[in-house]
Design goal:
The complex is a heterodimer.
Chain A: E1 2-4, E2 10-12, E3 14-18, E4 30-36, E5 39-46, H1 54-57, H2 66-71, H3 78-93, H4 99-127, H5 131-152, E6 161-162, E7 165-166, H6 174-196, H7 200-206, H8 214-220, H9 224-229, H10 236-239, E8 252-254, H11 260-284, H12 302-307, H13 309-320, E9 328-336, E10 339-347, E11 355-359, H14 361-367, H15 369-373, H16 378-387, H17 392-396
Antiparallel strand pairs in A: 1-2, 3-4, 4-5, 6-7, 9-10, 10-11
Helix pairs in contact in A: 3-4, 4-5, 4-11, 4-16, 5-6, 6-11
Chain B: E1 2-4, H1 12-15, H2 18-37, E2 63-64, H3 79-83, E3 89-95, E4 103-111, H4 120-124, E5 130-131, E6 148-149, H5 151-155, H6 176-186
Antiparallel strand pairs in B: 2-5, 3-4, 4-6
Classes of the chains: A alpha+beta, B alpha+beta.
Chain lengths: 397, 191
């Protein structure tokens, strides 16, 4: 393809497709690139290859039936999506959750954030040719999945929260398991940092690569670790605290330059902060109920259903009709692993959501991808894609 | 207060690269030796020969609970099929013959290819008739119709093999609680 550049010269460009089904894109994403030698002159992104119609599908069922769908948004940290949606519906009702439920949601949510970052950094380093780190991160991640098996009965699609409570309480020995696994993760983080932090290849390939300025990041609508890597101190857990995050002692982590290095290291240090939150929450975890007693939202206790007529009627009403949030529009966001995960729920007072709009964090980050890689090498474009952590399930919904 | 990511500059020894390579090799070879000396610490399984050890309440293939006479405990109330987000449960009711029970399922099919194993059917059941604790999580067959399991397939298990531990099978009671639930059911309070 011959084009004229701004200086008036005719240059020969080659067009290639990065993706949509290429192992290095970590999902079905397509970036259409015009190459001048090894340099990307222009790039345009396309999405929609994993579109499953989440927003339309959830209108067909009750609010409880939305929960399994949210597992399939960001499948690396399914429980954070469960928590995000449940929190949105719970705030529509204005119900208070029992303390134990909130603490468990914080512990499981932070551990989900940690394993999401483990996958993101591990896969990012594989794109740079560092396979070993991937295995050092995936070993503790497998231990976390063993905990998921026990607490939720599933590994990937956990569906662990319920509107007004939790699917299941923590099992015996839960605290010890979590404490053991976070120690393992800390050990893995230390090993990987020892391998990469003074590694010339890693630093040369990530420092000052695909830099995004703080102004650009804000105008693209970025959130989460990628925004913080650009030097903007914005974290919903700090700025709009929910679930008592203001009572935990932790710091946000910010970068200075907004390059791939900062994006990797912000995630790396955030894991350490999350582990500190998990430990504090475990110390404060006390016995108690895990479900709200509000009969409008949460199924009654099973023993009561077997013996008590009122509980049985309550069970029938909640299954056959479902929960009915008051009519109105409501937006609620949580800090998910990738950034601000928002649910905009419109209720007409009925049992099915009238409309659920998801604000996925990757969507805004992927929108900037084409502009980010313009002027960089093709080999740098792929680690950059990994560093903004695009999860196609969440991007396309 | 925010922590700022440090951007260390490399020293000349680190820039030489070989020193860091050897440090890295020390770490990885250390891992290799540790694993070789004690292969039990490996996280990986020699998969089909060694099967994963699933917890009892892992959400796996469904089973239908039984009454003492072997009939299904299910009263065909359609709660599970209503709660199912994947709409994979098909029930047809018939008269039970016993006026205390009134209804029972003539057909109770679950299409396992549609099922997403969310456990909402178990949570919805008002008489503890369906559970997902068979530990059968890996299903292989050669035709689609074989994945539609029937009432009799889900009833095909021996109550004497049922674990007597106090693990709650999803939301329904298990172990000793199972006994309690059955008594409540037989005594009439569960009707």
């Amino acid at each position: 393809m011959k084009v004229e550049n701004p200086a008036g010269d005719i240059v020969e460009l080659m067009t290639i497709n990065l993706g949509p089904s290429h192992p290095a894109t970590h999902g079905t994403l397509r970036a259409f690139c015009a190459l001048d030698g090894e340099t990307v002159s222009a790039a345009a992104c396309e999405m929609g290859y994993l579109h499953r119609g989440f927003e339309k599908m959830v209108e067909q069922g009750t609010y409880s039936m939305v929960l399994p769908y949210t597992d399939r948004l960001n499948y690396c940290s399914a429980m954070l999506n469960n928590i995000g949606f449940c929190k949105a519906v719970e705030t529509m009702f204005g119900i208070e959750l029992p303390e134990r439920c909130v603490r468990l949601r914080v512990i499981i949510g932070e551990l989900s954030r940690v394993i999401d970052h483990l996958v993101c950094i591990g896969a990012n380093l594989v794109d740079l040719g560092a396979m070993t780190n991937f295995w050092y991160f995936f070993n503790p991640r497998e231990s976390v999945y063993k905990i998921w098996e026990k607490i939720s009965g599933a590994r990937l699609t956990n569906t662990w929260t319920r509107i007004g409570g939790l699917y299941r309480d923590a099992y015996d020995g839960f605290s010890d398991d979590i404490r053991a696994v976070v120690t393992k993760i800390e050990h893995a983080i230390a090993e990987v940092r020892a391998l990469i932090e003074h590694n010339k290849i890693f630093l040369d390939r990530t420092k000052d690569v695909c830099v995004v300025s703080a102004e650009d990041a804000i105008s693209w609508g970025w959130t989460g670790p990628c925004l913080r890597a650009c030097g903007v101190d914005r974290d919903l857990r700090k700025d709009e605290p929910y679930y008592g995050y203001e009572t935990y002692d932790f710091d946000t982590v910010i970068g200075t330059t907004g390059d791939t290095y900062d994006r990797v290291m912000v995630r790396m240090l955030e894991m350490i902060e999350s582990i500190s939150i998990i430990r504090q929450a475990l110390d404060k975890l006390e016995d108690g109920p895990i479900n709200s007693t509000d009969a409008r939202v949460r199924l009654p206790n099973k023993q009561a259903v077997y013996h008590d007529m009122e509980a049985l009627i309550n069970q029938f009403k909640l299954i056959y009709e479902g929960v009915r949030p008051p009519p109105g529009e409501h937006y609620d966001a949580t800090e998910a692993a990738n950034g601000e995960l928002g649910f905009f729920v419109v209720s007409d007072g009925g049992t099915n959501p009238y409309k659920v709009k998801v604000r996925p964090p990757c969507f805004t980050q992927y929108a900037a991808f084409g502009e980010m890689i313009e002027g960089s090498l093709v080999a740098d474009a792929l680690p950059t894609l990994a560093s903004i952590n695009i999860i196609a399930g969440e991007l396309d919904r | 207060m925010a922590k700022v990511v440090a951007r260390p500059e490399l020293t000349w020894a680190e820039r030489l690269y070989f020193v860091e390579i050897f440090k890295g090799m020390k770490l990885t070879i250390g891992h290799a030796l540790k694993t070789l000396s004690n292969p039990d610490t490996l996280t990986t399984l020699v998969y089909p020969e060694v099967q994963p050890d699933l917890p009892q309440d892992y959400r796996s293939r469904h089973r239908l609970m039984k009454r003492p006479d072997g009939d299904p405990r299910c009263v065909a109330c359609y709660m599970c099929s209503t709660a199912c987000p994947a709409r994979c449960i098909e029930i047809e009711a018939e008269e039970a013959g016993d006026h205390h029970i009134e209804k029972r399922p003539a057909v109770f099919n679950i299409d396992l290819l549609l099922c997403i194993y969310c456990g909402m059917c178990v949570e919805a059941c008002p008489c503890d008739a369906i559970r997902m604790d068979t530990k059968k999580a890996i299903l292989v067959d050669d035709a689609r119709h074989k994945f539609i399991i029937s009432r009799d397939q889900m009833l095909d298990w021996d109550p004497s093999d049922y674990p007597d531990t106090d693990v709650t099978s999803q939301e329904a009671p298990g172990g000793k609680l199972n006994e309690e639930a059955r008594k409540a059911f037989e005594s009439g309070t569960g009707h």
